[in-house]
Structures are given as C-alpha cells and as structure tokens.
Design brief:
Largest sheet: 5 strands, mixed
Number of strands: 11
CATH architecture of the largest domain: 3-Layer(aba) Sandwich
Bound molecules: iron/sulfur cluster
Shape: globular
Number of helices: 16
Length: about 350
C-alpha cells in the first residue's frame, strides 16, 4: 500500500489518484475464474482487493484517469474505449479460457456493453452496484438480487463520500482561519464537525428534494436563531453570532451539490451553471450536455415502445430503478420523477428506443 495515495484518495477525492492499469490477481485465480472490470482510481482498487478477500478472480483495471467509476463514467473518462483497451492490451485473453467480463453498473453511463462485445468478442454482464455484494453475487452463479442492482446512500457511504469530496474545502478554510483569525479556529472546527454530522447524518430526512432546498430550510432556522440573539442575551465570552453565520455557510457547503456526492441524487450545480449560460469550466461541461438538458427540462427522456425489444438492459443499468416491466412484460418508465439524468439507459439501449427528445 502507498500511504500517500491512501490518504490522498481518501481525503482529496476531488483530484485524480491513478493506479497502474492492467490485470490484478485476487486470491488464486485460474483460467475459469471471473474477470471483474474496474476503474484505475487508487482507492477503488485497494478497497476491491480488500473486499474480495477469499475470492479467486481477475481484476481488470481499466483507464479512468484516476477517477472513481461513477464520476469517470459520467464524465466519459471511463468508457467503452477504456474497457476495450484493457481487454486487448492487459494479457487477460491469455489467462482465461472464457470470454466474459463483469462490468461495474455505475460505469454504464460511459461504457457501452454492446460496443465492448462488438469490438472484442467478449460477453458482458453487469455486476452488483456495491463491491461488498460481489462475493455473494459470484457465489450465486452471477445472479444479481434486486438490491444488488440499485444504488444506496447509507450513513457510511454518506460520511465516506462527503468527507472525501469536501475535505479540500474544509482544509483550506481552516487554513484561512489559522492565518487570519486563529482565535476563531477552534470555533470553526467545532461548528464544522457539528454541521457535517447533522447534515450528512440526517440529509435523507431533511425536507426538500434538492440539496439547496434542505440548506435553505436549515439556514432559515439558523437565521431565526441569529435574529433571536438580538432579543435574548448571549454569553459574552462566546462568539455566538459568528458561530451561527459559520454554520449557515457550512450547511451551504455540505449540501450545495448533493448530486456531486451520490449516484442517487441529480446534480444541482450543473443545471444552475447551465441556466447562467456557462458552457464549461476546464474539462467540465455544463450547458449543452444531454444530462444538463434533461435536468433543466430542455429535453425529455422519451421511450418508444414500438422500437423496444424489452431486453431489460435499461432496467439492469438504472441505479435508481426508474424502469420497470408492466403486466405484459413490456418495459416502461415507471418512476420518471426519480430520474437523475445519468444517461446510462440511453447509452445501453441498442434499439434506439430511448431518446432525450427536445422539449
Ligand atoms: S428501452 Fe431499450 S434497453 Fe430498455 S428494454 Fe427497450 S430495447 Fe431494451
Ligand atoms: S432512467 Fe434516468 S437515472 Fe435511470 S438510467 Fe436512465 S437516465 Fe439514468
């Protein structure tokens, strides 16, 4: 293990943390052992190796520019080309006798399973969304249960992703306090820990569909408390008003972009930037992408039942469970309102039965 990369991948996840692509042996794999594909984000690979203890498998680490599966697939850094290249150049074809790769379903926004098959001859299967389910999935002869197909955002996942994504902001603000207002540093750290635990711990239950709605509610409550300090006396030796303002800003920081933290929430930031008319910052595009067009309502996810073969690939890759089958076994958009516009179903449909149609 590389301790620097371990810390970097854990706390500075906003920035890439690449690991060598290629084949990694898990346990004692043989020619019949399963081949699992993942990204080349250091933390993901380390965690997979740890989670798969006791399993014999080949782990095919494909290029994602050192970014995790979900973010890299949505940003098209973890894509069909990554997987095709990993299969063709890693030597995996000489190590196994079968020709099936197990793909991570959160990569479905970037990897076209049909194109991987066309370009390599390898069959593809979607594995479980969470790595911890892989041993059970393999033990069940590669059958996914319903929960294995859907993304979750449990307390542990929330603490992990929120801290990993937001730590650089917290760190630099704390550094600012240390330099310019050291007497407030302790209050800042205390407020940070308290607001982080409250927001991340309780966010599924805080009213509001979007992160900014949750933040508005909490900040309104803190605003009332702030107003109350001009009526009720506050301890003279504690900067209560400063702490309340800090808490309001910190709630905005924790909850401003829930979609950037989890695959179960749609982005708030990208459509906001698109509405402002900002096309991109660096490599990140806002206006004019299918995803932001869907989120701002410029396009609508449209299903053409007459073209649909009911192959169920959209059901297989939607992390939210937006698609379902009706009583005639026909696929349909059952929970459109829950769609986060990840575009995975659009990417996988080979019949052109799903479109993002101009509104
Ligand atoms: S919409 Fe496309 S992916 Fe979904 S079942 Fe129909 S053909 Fe398959
Ligand atoms: S229905 Fe929405 S959330 Fe589900 S795969 Fe399609 S675009 Fe993604």
């Amino acid at each position: 293990m590389n301790p620097f990369k371990a810390v970097w991948g854990l706390l500075f996840r906003l920035f890439p943390c690449p690991i060598q692509t290629g084949v990694v042996r898990i346990g004692n794999p043989g020619p019949d052992s399963p081949v699992l594909v993942t990204c080349n984000f250091y933390t993901t690979v380390r965690r997979l190796i740890r989670t798969l203890k006791g399993v014999d498998a080949w782990l095919l680490v494909a290029e994602s520019k050192g970014v995790n599966v979900w973010c890299a697939a949505c940003g098209n850094e973890f894509n069909t080309r990554s997987v095709v290249s990993a299969i063709k150049t890693s030597g995996i074809e000489d190590k196994v006798t079968h020709r099936t790769v197990i793909l991570p379903p959160l990569g479905a926004a970037g990897i076209s399973a049909a194109e991987v098959k066309d370009q390599t001859g390898w069959h593809t299967r979607w594995g479980p969304v969470r790595a911890k389910d892989i041993p059970a999935y393999l033990a069940a002869h590669r059958k996914r249960t319903e929960p294995m197909k859907r993304a979750t955002y449990t307390l542990g996942e929330r603490l992990d992703t929120a801290l990993g994504s937001m730590f650089p902001f917290y760190f630099f603000v704390a550094l600012g306090f240390l330099v310019f207002a050291p007497h407030l540093l302790g209050y800042f750290v205390g407020t940070l820990v308290a607001t982080f635990l409250v927001f991340i711990g309780l966010c599924p239950w805080i009213p509001g569909k979007h992160g900014w709605q949750k933040v508005l509610l909490l900040d309104a409550l803190l605003g009332l408390a702030l107003a109350a300090t001009s009526v009720w006396p506050v301890p003279a030796d504690i900067p209560v008003r400063t702490i309340l303002v800090m808490a309001m800003v910190l709630f905005a920081l924790h909850g401003g972009e829930l979609g950037g933290l989890s695959s179960i929430w749609a982005s708030d930031f990208d459509p906001f930037m698109a509405r402002l008319g900002l096309r991109s910052i660096g490599n990140t595009r806002f206006a004019g992408t299918t995803r932001t067009d869907l989120l701002i309502g410029a396009r609508v996810l449209t299903h053409y039942p007459e073209k649909c073969s009911s192959c169920a690939e959209c059901i297989n890759v939607c992390p939210i469970g937006v698609w379902d089958r009706n009583e005639h076994k026909k696929t349909f958009l059952a929970h459109r309102e829950a769609c986060t516009a990840c575009c995975a179903c659009l990417k996988q449909c080979t019949e052109d039965a799903i479109e993002a149609l101009a509104a």
